[in-house]
Amino acid sequence: MLLSFLLFLHVIFIIPPCGATVNSALLATLERVSGYAAAAYCRTNYRSGADLPATFPPNTFDQDGFCEIVHSFLNVNEHDTSGLIMLDHTNEAIIITFRGTISHTDWNTNLEGLQYDASDICGEGCIAHSGFLASWESVADNVKSNWTSVLQQYPQYDTIITGHSLGGTLAHICAASLKKMRPNATMSLYTYASPRVGNLIFANSINEGFGNNNHRVTHLNDPVPRLLGRLFGFDHTSPEYHITSPHIRKALSANKKTLAKPANLVVAADDILVLPGPENEAGSLRYSCTNIEMHDEYFIHIAACAVDSKTSLLSRFAIDICHILLLCCNSGLKFGTMWDPVSNGGHP
Ligand SMILES: *[C@@H]1O[C@H](CO)[C@@H](O)[C@H](O)[C@H]1NC(C)=O
Ligand SMILES: *[C@@H]1O[C@H](CO)[C@@H](O)[C@H](O)[C@H]1NC(C)=O
């Protein structure tokens, strides 16, 4: 009787697995790292020179001034691969952060293709998206050598690999690659709004290599984490940190002019569900309708630095997604149900 009541409760409320919750320290880290991901969008960070302080979107968790850029790569090859290596001396961390979508060339990365042998990075049978992989390979040697030299200077620092959206896919591949190179280095991975990157073998190599240090963050019904679905044979890494807070949007739209951070701690620790994967129906998969406006809102307005171009990131992005699907834009379309076979009632 009690058991069935508990099962009943479990069905009504999504009870996160035992022990898997976000405490205030992790919440603060998830927020802080979202600022590193945001910094990769800021054009001002792509300069050469020594001891450059990194800039962040206005009021991004007060990080201005204490991150130092040690290396940057901007618009490398046809994929426009861009990112930064920074040092956060306050938090004793080496940050490797990748920029997300900014141009059409970026999304050609998505159009380009499907599966590609990634066994060099993650072992036999490992497959990743060929465009993401080519994008990573265009900067891999530079990132590895620059990271190695920074690590020699600061051997006690943790390495944090991050990125938003397309930047999240690069962060995943970078993470798998650096883990293979130095399995004993302390590193952690934080991705925001990342699409699926590769097959289950790829995802498992991240899960096993990073364990508790892997954080795949999704927000409400952002469609992008649903991209490159299982129809392609792709799977997500685990766990998913699913932000359920509807407050981010409200706070951000109230502050749109300044692109400011929302009132402190708009996302509370218990707004975040920690869901084991690879595909958890209680996370970003659970919505029948998706909303592209959720895509930039991860603790902060994460692509704030990209918004200065003629067309907004979101509208370009929406157009590109339509191109990907070879469908016309139609406000009635439910992106998620088209992209993900699971929402259409069945596992492949
Ligand atoms: C860092 O990468 C750049 C290319 O972007 C390269 O020229 C330089 O030699 C690298 N530095 C180190 C220390 O590996
Ligand atoms: C990593 O650490 C383990 C023991 O903790 C050791 O056996 C192994 O040789 C180390 N691997 C590398 C590549 O340093």
From TrEMBL:
<protein>
    <recommendedName>
        <fullName>Fungal lipase-type domain-containing protein</fullName>
    </recommendedName>
</protein>
<dbReference type="InterPro" id="IPR002921">
    <property type="entry name" value="Fungal_lipase-type"/>
</dbReference>
<dbReference type="InterPro" id="IPR029058">
    <property type="entry name" value="AB_hydrolase_fold"/>
</dbReference>
<dbReference type="GO" id="GO:0006629">
    <property type="term" value="P:lipid metabolic process"/>
</dbReference>
<dbReference type="InterPro" id="IPR051218">
    <property type="entry name" value="Sec_MonoDiacylglyc_Lipase"/>
</dbReference>
<comment type="similarity">
    <text>Belongs to the AB hydrolase superfamily. Lipase family. Class 3 subfamily.</text>
</comment>
<dbReference type="Pfam" id="PF01764">
    <property type="entry name" value="Lipase_3"/>
</dbReference>
<feature type="domain" description="Fungal lipase-type">
    <location>
        <begin position="96"/>
        <end position="229"/>
    </location>
</feature>
<feature type="signal peptide">
    <location>
        <begin position="1"/>
        <end position="20"/>
    </location>
</feature>
<keyword id="KW-0732">Signal</keyword>
